[in-house]
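Task: sequence in, structure out. Protein: N-acetylglucosamine/diacetylchitobiose ABC transporter substrate-binding protein.
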Amino acid sequence: MGSTAHHGAEGVGRRDLIKRSAALGLIATPGMGLLSACASSGGDGQDKAEQGKKTARNPLGVNDTAGLEFVLFDGGFGKEYAEDAVKIYERDFPKAEVKFAATQKIQSTLQPRFNQGTPPDLIDNSGAEQMDMGVLVGKNQLADLTALLDAPSYDDPDKKVRDTLRPGIVEMGQFDGDPVWILYYAYTVYGVWYSQKALDSLDAAYPETWDDMLALCAKAKKKGIAGWTYAGKYPYYIPFSLYPMIAKVGGREVLDAIDNLEPNAWRHPAVKACFEAYYELYKKGYILRGTPGLDHIQSQTAWAKGKALFLPNGSWVENESANVIPSDFGLAVSAPSGLDGSDKLPFGTIWACGGEPFIVPAKAKNAEGGMEQLRIMLSEASSKNFTAKVKSLTAFNGGTSGITLTPGLKSGVAALEKAGDNVVNPRMQDWYVQLQKEKIGVSGLGEMMAGRLTPAEAIKKIQSFADEAAKDSSIKHYKHQ
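Result:
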């Protein structure tokens, strides 16, 4: 899966391409694949559990004898944090039988059940087989979680659940209007991950401009170290650093236009400049040899072993690669390098947002139970448990006091503090899953970074994919409000 000819000169004067345009993000879900949902409106379905009596201790009116079925994506965060939260549900509702399962086969396991109208009560819809959120919302397959958000929080009856959440979490779960269809439980920082020890060995600081990035990669190459690697089989990891770079260079409105499927959004000068900057990594031989054939685990392992300096990823990488990251690695994350001083937003502009999307199906037998399980997970104790065990923040705005933060988590918090208001949140990955993963990621960016497309060819191809999606009447379309 190596390189081919790069078809002539690309990358003419980055500075000449940027005149000034517009940017936006935080922590989320490890997406690892290509399948999307083809949800139908569902079959006859199952009988709903009778609602229980609403009390101060049971504000959602959960039927205390109704069973609860919870299916979790078994990915980078593992399943122990969810199993611990299930134990609290079982303690609170001892008469209820809880069926908990963890799988990586979300779509192939659960899509048939959606079609039959017999879905579980709570689902962590993540991973390679993530069901397409836009499709599920568009086909009325999900329950509105407003009742959960307006319920008293698990810890403080005087505070609503929505008032305990990090900024942007509620808005992420909205697609059109007020209903909230998804609760993103993890809070993910996306960016460029690296070893501070490796940079120290090169007597280098993290590069803030692209010229400095290329100079550092050249220095590393002389010592037999690649500048970058990435999940070559899942190249939609590349946007974790590329998208916020586009926002930094051209402004957040460039990403908004891309999300909105606006005509020529991908032809913006900031997009062209950033594509050409990344393509230079390929042209100059700064990508770890064989990267296009590596999956996420293989690329993370090679990086952890010091074969490459930089890795675009999300904050789950600290937990997912814990068994291969050396104790003295000095794990750190940075916002992407910019082009130069003409960038619209300052260095530190980063993508961060809710991740690990939890949903309650509209035809769930025990929807109140599914929401109650989420209410438990959004307590301070469950949030602290998650952070301590999986090295990631949650949607709960707090939950870190008394916890010794791991290097990656500490670096992520520092990156957020540095970003301030310059946090962007591209919606492509949850509004249009198939477009983002299969087309933009694999067929566009993956081909470009492997040297099989020039930046101009990649942009033309990706813009055509976006135009097709915009014209497709079978797809529900969303726009930034």
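Residues 254 and 268 are 7 Å apart (CA to CA).
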